[in-house]
Specification:
Elements lengths: L1 E7 L4 H14 L4 E5 L4 E5 L3 H10 L3 E5 L1
Antiparallel strand pairs: 1-3, 1-4, 2-3
Helix pairs in contact: 1-2
Bound molecules: copper (II) ion.
Length: 66
């Protein structure tokens, strides 16, 4: 089941790729899609804790579930 999270600080496709890669590093089977306009990251296959950790390590701000 996918969950949508708000992530602050992403400004370009490079940021989106960094967030996606970090989440997949935490949970290799995760499916991730990023919508820069709404600052939303949709994740299937990773826990909220994994997403929070990955987003922080990638240098962005994890806000919480959207
Ligand atoms: Cu960027």
């Amino acid at each position: 089941m996918s969950q949508v999270y708000l992530v602050a600080g992403m400004t370009c496709q490079g940021c989106a790729r960094s967030v996606e890669a970090a989440i997949k590093y935490e949970s290799p089977k995760a499916a991730v899609s990023v919508d820069l306009g709404s600052a939303q990251v949709t994740v299937d296959g990773a826990s909220e804790d994994q997403v929070k950790k990955a987003v922080g390590e990638a240098g962005f701000s994890f806000i919480g579930p959207a």
